[in-house]
Design a protein that fits this description.
Elements lengths: L12 E10 L3 E5 L5 E5 L6 E8 L7 E10 L27 H20 L12 E3 L16 E6 L5 E4 L6 E3 L8 H4 L11 E8 L6 E7 L15 E5 L6 E5 L3 E6 L2 E6 L10 H13 L6 E5 L5 H10 L4 E6 L2 H10 L6 E5 L2 H7 L7 E4 L8 H8 L5 E6 L2 H13 L2 E10 L8 E8 L5
Parallel strand pairs: 3-5, 6-21, 11-12, 16-17, 16-19, 17-18, 19-20
Antiparallel strand pairs: 1-2, 1-4, 2-3, 4-5, 7-8, 7-10, 8-9, 10-11, 12-13, 14-15, 20-22, 21-22
Helix pairs in contact: 1-8, 3-4, 7-8
């Protein structure tokens, strides 16, 4: 029995009316035949010619780029970056939209995900519908926030640095990234030859002058002599175990938040926008309102940002337990919080460690899970601990909405929700939801 060949539609062009924004940096459109297109480089209400980039006759939907704008939106601007646009760098999603329009689009995505996955309107979530820009990010037209303190450069076959194209392993060679922080740009990564390297990650701490590059060699590739435009520490990724090892200089960078210095080693997680750690820490503390003597959990705690802030506020009679899966992050968290004897950091996955702690009740919980969210099992466990307030920090509105629905099933409602544009020009957005138990009728 022969299989009928599936016909690719890549390269096909359709003239379409662009519909609403969708989660993922694109808008939804339909062809005259009713086929769904996910269109990048478009804005709601525009009429465009969309060229298919992914999809076949049997696909549920097609991915496409808007290659000709027939009827532009009033929110459209010319992309300030020469590497942004159809078939080019995939690092940014909304270079073609005014900054205020970008935030409105992100707000529409959050609202849609909350309603669809959690059954919540903005009012029911205690959210005014706005996405707040970070301090200092409101700039004159044509200027772009230089916010990205960590940039992962891909290296092409000729040893040139660039960024990957959207949903592709292809490298768009660049001479400058407009959203890179000045501390990254001044290293001059793009001007160097990186033969035998697969990637080069540049880190410019916002809490100090520490600069770091992490090299990932191609299989069998030898490390180059790294000479950049500014003093920099060098680390490498081991091709056997995937571990990060120091070549020279410090193995960590120093960051600042809440008037405290945090050590972040081996390229470990820290918020990328220079204002993000402080912004999110304040939003969490304002939402939780920690009191002296309270107990708290900090889940997916990284190097201890929220654990430190809570410990400072609950005082010597309070106690904080942090759980983090990364070994180096746990070492850093223990170092960073050594001044708080009532803080304990455990290593392991939250879903495995939390049940082993024997904790049956707690006053406060903060969780900042990875993009996939915490999941039903963990949420149900947390809801059984009786916390008076829970702070959920989310970088993905879909995962947040799913987990809010799980919390609702176990008697927790959203008290307030705040959204922050900590990834300008991209579709990413950060949210802080504060939950509390539903009051039971007497």
């Amino acid at each position: 029995m022969q299989n009928t060949p599936v016909s690719s539609l890549v390269g096909e062009e359709y003239e379409v009316e662009v519909g609403p924004v969708a989660h993922g940096g694109h808008c939804i459109a339909r062809t005259e035949a009713g086929r769904v297109l996910f269109v990048r480089h478009a804005l709601p209400g525009e009429r465009v010619v969309a060229r298919v980039t992914e999809g076949e006759e049997t696909s549920r939907f097609l991915r496409a780029d808007a290659i000709t704008i027939l009827d532009p939106s009033k929110d459209r601007v010319e992309a300030p970056c020469p590497f942004a646009g159809p078939g080019k760098c995939g690092g940014c999603d909304w270079q073609h939209a005014k900054p205020g329009a970008q935030r409105r689009l992100k707000g529409e995505v959050i609202a849609e995900q909350l309603l669809r996955l959690a059954g919540l309107t903005p009012e029911e979530a205690g959210w005014d519908g706005t996405v707040m820009p970070a301090e200092g990010d409101k700039l004159p037209q044509g200027e772009v926030p230089q916010w990205r303190t960590r940039v992962q450069y891909a290296i092409d076959a000729d040893g040139q640095a660039g960024l990957r194209k959207h949903r592709s392993h292809e490298v768009e060679v660049i001479d400058h990234c407009m959203i890179a922080a000045p501390g990254v740009s001044e290293l001059g990564i793009e001007k160097r030859d990186w033969e035998n390297m697969a990637s080069v990650e540049a880190i410019a701490a916002s809490g100090s002058n520490d600069r770091q590059v992490i090299l990932t060699p191609k299989p069998g590739g030898r490390l180059p002599l790294v000479e950049l435009d500014k003093p920099v520490s060098v680390l490498r990724v081991d091709e056997k175990d995937g571990g990060v090892h120091r070549v020279h200089g410090r193995a960590f960078v120093r960051e600042r938040a809440d008037d405290r210095t945090y050590r972040v080693g081996n390229g470990g997680f820290w918020q990328v926008h220079p204002k993000a750690a402080q912004t999110l820490m304040l939003a969490v503390m304002q939402g939780l309102t920690p009191r002296k003597g309270e107990t708290a959990l900090d889940l997916y705690c990284g190097v201890g940002l929220f654990a430190g802030a809570i410990a400072d506020r609950v005082g010597e009679q309070g106690a904080v337990l942090g759980i983090e899966s990364g070994k180096r992050a746990v070492e850093d968290a223990r170092h960073n919080l050594a001044g708080f004897p009532r803080v304990r950091i455990e290593q392991g996955k939250v879903e495995a460690v939390l049940p082993r702690t024997g904790i049956t009740e707690v006053d406060l919980i903060v969780l900042d899970p990875p993009r996939a969210g915490a999941g039903k099992q963990t949420v149900h466990h947390l809801a059984g601990l009786g916390a008076r307030r829970i702070a959920y920090v989310a970088c993905d509105p879909a995962a947040l909405a799913r987990d809010l629905a799980y919390f609702a099933d176990r008697g927790y409602k959203v008290r307030t929700l705040r959204a922050f544009d900590l990834f300008p020009m991209t579709h990413h957005v950060e949210c802080v939801a504060i939950l509390e138990p539903v009051k039971k009728d007497a």
